[in-house]
Amino acid sequence: MATPVNFFRGAAPTALTTAYTVPASGQAIVTNIVAANPSSTTVGSVTVRLGGTDIVPAVSLAAKGVLTLEINQVIDENEAIQVQGSGAACSLHVSGVEV
Fold this sequence. Notes:
Blueprint: E1 3-11, E2 17-21, E3 27-36, E4 44-50, E5 53-61, E6 66-76, E7 80-85, E8 91-98
């Protein structure tokens, strides 16, 4: 049975950071990525890496910009979701399910 999971929600750290690791004998499916740049003047960027592969590779976000990505990407046991943002205070939300 699939269990909904909030893999990451918050300010994107400035260093590439592991936000979630798939448990042993499990899989996870990332279904949604939302990134926002609340700054009214500064361009920001975000990176999201799934299982070592950049899915969102340092994508620029305009001031007050929003990025939404609806996907169905499977990551296997012991693989990680990693997140990073630029110096601008970009936020990220990565969600999906564990199976």
